Amino acid sequence: MKKTIITVVGKDTVGIIAKVCTYLAENEANVEDISQTIIQGYFNMMMIVDTSRSRKPFGEMAGDLELIGDELGLKIRCQHEDIFTKMHRI
Amino acid sequence: MINIFEVYETNKMIEQEQLDVRTITMGISLLDCVDADLATLNRNIYDKITHAARDLVSVGRDIEREYGIPIVNKRISVTPIALVGGRACTCPEDFVTIAGTLDDAARATGVNFLGGYSALVSKGMTPADEHLIRSIPMALASTERVCSSVNIGSTKTGINMDAVKLMGEMVKETAEATKEDSSLGCAKLVVFCNAPDDNPFMAGAFHGVTEADAVIHVGVSGPGVVKRALETVRGENFEVLCETVKKTAFKVTRVGQLVAQEASQRLGVPFGIVDLSLAPTPSVGDSVAEILEEMGLASVGAPGTTAALALLNDQVKKGGVMASSFVGGLSGAFLPVSEDQGMIDAVNRGALTIEKLEAMTCVCSVGLDMIAIPGTTSAATIAGIIADEAAIGMINQKTTAVRLIPVVGKDVGDTVEFGGLLGHAPIQRVNTFSCEAFINRGGRIPAPIHSFKN
């Protein structure tokens, strides 16, 4: 099953993970891994998510998360895992 | 499992370094549209293209959204029209009706360019080939999205100098026919030697007769990504430089391969090739010239430029070949002057001349591309430049091409604005000594010998 990578980039604030995870739980998307770090002064978070049971189409979910990002002043992106594995793994 | 730094690197390439897939191009064969009746032929062509490519643009958009990678252009290439219209078209005006049909089909499918208003005349011209070539100025002036190309030579056949002479005249006539638009028609007209059958890039794309009924080709890009990667190895030796280009080209091409496979699967059309070209755009940070300058040249055009370009081109291929299961098209670095801000700057500071560009085309992927020249340049001089470029391709067994724009009413010192991806360009000086007697000889230059390679 294709995994979805959700990335959050921006200024660190309270409740980022809670907001994103609540949305994902409501849409039956299972978070399999979370990692976070600071790169060049910016908060970076990456989630590996299984959306195979989610009823919402990919595009809609990506749009919703983008809006949540806008509310928090962050950039949230949703991408299929393949673009990263193809580029970084032989 | 993928880690956060790798995800960050990919997204940085996309967001800050202008990594994109330059084009998904669907090649469509029109050979089964052939009919003796012109109206039927036109209807067949329209129906075939609009049916085969009906989902091309929407599938491209879906892939863009799901992978987060911009796909700048969705395009179509078709069988060279001189082959398709040979039975039904008895004059240049008949061919122009097909150009109109292609333009309508491009608009209906939502693609921004459609290539293949072409003739392959490397050894000789059929009456249909000649009618098509003579119709090019009218066709390009009366359509918006149609692109034209003519192959006038090859390593196997030599150079058809009658066609070269004719193309010199057609480039002039196209400039005149589109003079209200800064002679923009010439930006949609390419003269080739050794044209590939599977090139996804405009304006020279056509769907060769060796290809399947429909096929998906993808052209990658990413000069900005290579430039940024080279910034991290300033002052290092050539081994480190080459390894860096190679690794970066691998990563860029993998994205192209992914997009090509996805598009092919979703459209139910076989995957053709990935074209490994570094294609610049006029936006800052998306320039091939800047890569060469990052290697250590004060300006592109300085001594060392040809060597820098040769190593860039070769390393891009070496990195890209392993990243894709099928590589084809033009695969190399493009040098379209008007579409590359670094090239424009080099011309403006007097560092880059047409003669130096010609030398660079010996080692780059294509040729003299998007170069604006004085509108007063004669047809014979344009034909002479075409012949020179074709000779480089013929002898070196590579594709070369000429896309010159003799801008009517403009001279050296002026600038011409084409807009969008086509950019803007200073008018460049052309050597004014005549080659008319040479061009007027007529006939063919024989195919070159394939031994004694000095």
Describe this structure as you would to a colleague.
The complex is a heterodimer of chains A (90) and B (454). Chain A is α+β, with helices and mostly antiparallel strands and 90 residues long. Chain A contains three helices and four strands, in the order E-H-E-E-H-E-H. Chain A has one domain (4-88): ACT domain (Alpha-Beta Plaits, 2-Layer Sandwich). In chain A, 37% of the residues lie in helices and 37% in strands. The radius of gyration of chain A is 13 Å and the shape is globular. The mean pLDDT of chain A is 90. In chain B, the strands form three sheets. Chain B has a nine-stranded mixed sheet with strand order 9-8-1-2-3-4-7-11-10. Chain B has a single domain, classed as Anaerobic Ribonucleotide-triphosphate Reductase Large Chain (Alpha-Beta Barrel), CATH 3.20.70. By secondary structure, chain B is α/β, with parallel strands linked by helices. Classes of the chains: A alpha+beta (90), B alpha/beta (454). Chains A and B meet through strand 1, strand 2, strand 3, helix 2 and strand 4 of A and helix 1, helix 3 and helix 9 of B.
Task: Detail the topology: elements first, then pairings.
The complex is a heterodimer of chains A (90) and B (454).
Chain A: E1 4-10, H1 16-26, E2 30-39, E3 42-50, H2 58-72, E4 74-80, H3 82-88
Chain B: H1 4-16, E1 21-28, H2 38-52, H3 56-67, E2 71-78, H4 81-84, H5 92-109, E3 113-120, H6 127-142, E4 146-151, E5 153-154, E6 158-160, H7 161-177, E7 189-193, E8 214-220, H8 223-231, H9 238-267, E9 271-275, H10 288-294, H11 305-323, H12 341-348, H13 354-360, E10 368-374, H14 379-396, E11 400-407, E12 415-417, E13 424-426, H15 436-439, E14 444-445
Parallel strand pairs in B: 1-2, 2-3, 3-4, 4-7, 8-9, 10-11
Antiparallel strand pairs in B: 1-8, 5-6, 6-14, 7-11, 12-13
Helix pairs in contact in B: 2-5, 3-9, 5-6, 6-7, 7-14, 8-9, 8-10, 9-11
